[in-house]
Amino acid sequence: MASTALFTKTISLSKYGIKNATVQYQLDPQELHQICVENGQGKTTASGALAINTGKFTGRSPKDRFIVIDELTRDEVWWGDINIPFDKLKFNRLREKIQTYLSDKKLFVRDAFACADPRYRLGIRVINEHAWSNLFAHNMFLRPSKEDLENFKEDWLILNAPGFKANPEIDGTRQENFAIISFEEKTILIGGTGYTGEIKKGIFSVLNFLLPTQKSTLPMHCSANVGENGETAIFFGLSGTGKTTLSADPSRKLIGDDEHGWTPDNTIFNFEGGCYAKVINLSEEQEPDIFGAIQKGALLENVSVAENQEVDYTNTSITQNTRVSYPIHHINNIQIPSTGKKPTNIFFLTADAFGVLPPISKLTPGQAAYHFISGYTAKIAGTEAGITEPIPSFSACFGAPFMPLHPTRYAEMLIAKMQETGVNVWLINTGWTGGPYGIGKRMALKYTRAMINAALDNKLGEINHEDYHIHSVFGVAQPRTCPGVPDSVLSPRQTWNNDEGYYKTAHKLATAFKANFKKYEAYASEAILNGQPPLG
Ligand code: ATP
Ligand code: MN
């Protein structure tokens, strides 16, 4: 364990009210890995990655995500059940309790950055109770050089104490676990949950507030990559729709897999320094880039590991949401630094479990705005006793849980960007085909990839009757042919073999779109309203 010598720096935590802690500062990934194996928190897997369990929580807990209501946030934040207000005094008291909890412990401290564009750089200090959480921070944030560390300026602090449990009655939380952001204190408190995603999505929420209000920059829940000719593509989508999967394309350089900013001078930059991929049913054949990234240094979460150290990616006994984090350089073809020029194509990814949206369609500017504000995907209801019915799920800007401002603030910025750049916007259904969930099946990944590549390579023709069919229910332009994809796959109606069932279900979804959009109608222009499904 000699390599830490590079970063030797004595860190005192007393300024945070944490007393007598043993500080392990800026350990390298192999040291953190070793510590986890030695203390029984982790296992080394066959590929060299570390596997850990995050505990009771294997996903984020959006109902326990709070924002402190203060001078900075009071009139800016869109308060409600997404951005839940938290009292300032209670925040300070809870913080003191966490400081006491962390005192006298062996802690892991890491300095890192967010924002790959140096003009936006945010210094982040993370204080973790567990070594594996610190490895996550190493993998996911931008890693500072030795020089960076010497002059490190800490802008934000994350206190991450999974073992600390709040007392809701006294502390003002909903239950034991919480993630609370204070913009005045520039601090995030995370307690009662070991789910690592809270750490990265905490900083994402911070940037989603700061960038639009202070830098006229649009933050986006999207992945991004760039082609050989320097053309940037971005992929918006809610969880599980394919941002990480589809942005990892060996023929394009990866910019980032989840969080990006779009600057006034039309640069796209990654907020992060790593990827956080779902690994459920991962196969080397289908997703070679992600599979190959799961090597030494990568951190697997909540997977099952056999005696022989092999990971069984089909095993859902702990959770469906099995994950891996790794530094972005574990992917072979990456853009360095993680920035791109103005996008030429935007993809809205949706996993439509009703199986009625076309697998690819082109959107007019009005439709693009409408779909961005709607943020549609579908959830599958509990699989109890085989009863399965998709539930439409709308999340504005394809990321409402992370957006502190009113959705129209982000939508207005994106609409202005679309107008200014003339970017193509596509709606991609990575969900079901041939029928709804239970009858149809998930769209083949190879077809989705072929459709995206055809759009990127300008192989989908022009918007005219010969090349495109206008969908009668959704009004979107559906290409008639696409290289590498059978024509019949492009028409969801044809894949059903049941016109009546198809149209009934399509109407049902269109009606859900309209019901959801009601709350935005007052803000929407004529063009945006014209982007809604013509039927339903
Ligand atoms: P999150 O925001 O939670 O990170 P994400 O948008 O990055 O979610 P992915 O991690 O890419 O989502 O998950 C997509 C999942 O769906 C993967 O497990 C992938 O293998 C699977 N999948 C199956 N068929 C397709 C398809 N046609 N297109 C994209 N993904 C598909
Ligand atoms: Mn992802």
General description of the model:
ATP binds at residues 201, 221, 237-245, 287, 323, 448. It is an enzyme of class 4 (lyase). One of its GO terms (molecular function) is metal ion binding. It is found in: Cytoplasm. By secondary structure, the protein is an alpha/beta fold. It has three domains: 16-43 and 58-215, 3-Layer(aba) Sandwich (Phosphoenolpyruvate Carboxykinase, domain 1), CATH 3.40.449.10; 275-330, Phosphoenolpyruvate Carboxykinase, domain 2, CATH 2.170.8; 351-531, Phosphoenolpyruvate Carboxykinase, domain 3. The protein contains 15 helices and 30 strands. The strands form seven sheets. Strands 11, 12, 13, 14, 15, 21, 22, 23 and 26 form a nine-stranded mixed β-sheet that branches. The protein has an eight-stranded mixed β-sheet with strand order 1-6-7-8-10-9-4-5, with helices on both faces. A five-stranded mixed β-sheet has the order 2-3-17-20-16. It starts with 21 loop residues before the first strand and ends in a 7-residue tail after the last helix. The model is unreliable at 1-5 (pLDDT under 50).
